[in-house]
UniProtKB/TrEMBL annotation:
Coiled coil: none annotated. InterPro entries: ICL/PEPM (IPR039556), Pyrv/PenolPyrv_kinase-like_dom (IPR015813), Pyrv_kinase-like_dom_sf (IPR040442). This is Phosphonomutase. Signal peptide: none annotated. One of its GO terms (molecular function) is catalytic activity. PANTHER family: CARBOXYPHOSPHONOENOLPYRUVATE PHOSPHONOMUTASE-LIKE PROTEIN (AFU_ORTHOLOGUE AFUA_5G07230) (PTHR42905:SF16), PHOSPHOENOLPYRUVATE CARBOXYLASE (PTHR42905). It comes from the Bacteria.
């Protein structure tokens, strides 16, 4: 498939009640392993990509390094690749679109694009985030790429008290509808794990809903029943692999005396 075909194929994988499962990767090697495990598509996690190169999360990894990582994956792997692009390294619509175009040039066919103020406080106003999404959509359309914009809201991620998540659902639905109108293709609500709230958002959303697996989250079959269209694993795979590596290395050095 060429890039345009990959973008369309990736979009088609998002089916309500039959979610595409994305076990997040961070480089070409992990892309190969996950592909061989049976993946239908690939997705990076921003935390993992940054940590693998010695950086913290929150756009600490230089944009050029992220683009290079994207290109290294797409050069050796034919599956559709979505890149976790945080806030697109720009608060302004034109800058965000220009930076996303660099990922398209590197072979990506999708992005996660979040509404929190990276390195700042709170979330961007709905209208501003919608304007950024609209600029990205228009750029991708000009390129002839059906870029899958997975619009992420950090309402739930920013609220550590799970008992308060129910009070955020209406605001989340409002953001999802605004992002859909601006040209987004998916709606990502990380940190939400309550089954009733997930079902409510899935029913109300104009977009396929993405849930991130984390401790306490429903399993994939349950998420499918709740109407979810996409399940991702975020930094979980990286953290698990690093723990296994440290355990193995510790055993080696302990045995060596």
């Amino acid at each position: 498939m060429n890039q345009a075909e990959k973008a369309k194929a990736f979009g088609a994988l998002h089916q309500k009640g039959n979610p595409v499962v994305l076990y997040n990767i961070w480089d070409a090697g992990t892309a190969k392993a996950v592909t061989e495990a049976g993946a239908k598509a690939l997705a990076t996690g921003s935390w993992s990509v940054a940590a693998a190169q010695g950086y913290g999360d929150g756009e600490k990894i230089p944009l050029e390094a992220l683009v290079a990582t994207t290109r290294s994956i797409t050069t050796v792997n034919d599956l559709p690749l979505s890149v976790d692009f945080e806030g697109a390294y720009s608060t302004e619509p034109a800058g965000a679109a220009a930076n996303v175009e660099k990922l398209i040039d590197a072979g990506a066919i999708g992005i996660n694009f979040e509404d929190q103020v990276v390195g700042g406080e709170g979330l961007h106003p709905v209208e501003k985030q919608a304007a950024r999404i609209r600029a990205i959509r228009e750029m991708a359309d000009r390129r002839g790429i059906a870029l899958f914009i997975n619009a992420r809201t950090d309402l739930f991620l920013r609220e550590g008290d799970l008992s308060k998540h129910a009070g955020l659902v209406d605001a989340a639905i409002e953001r999802g509808k605004a992002y859909a109108a601006a040209g987004a293709n998916g709606f990502f609500v990380p940190w939400l794990i309550d089954e009733g709230l997930i079902e409510k958002i899935s029913a109300a959303s104009d977009l396929p809903v993405n849930i991130m697996m984390r401790p306490g989250a429903p399993d994939v079959k349950t998420l499918a029943r709740l109407g979810v269209s996409r399940v991702s694993y975020g930094p979980g795979p990286y953290r698990m692999m690093m723990e296994k590596l440290k355990e193995a290395a510790t055993a080696v050095y302990a045995a060596a005396g």
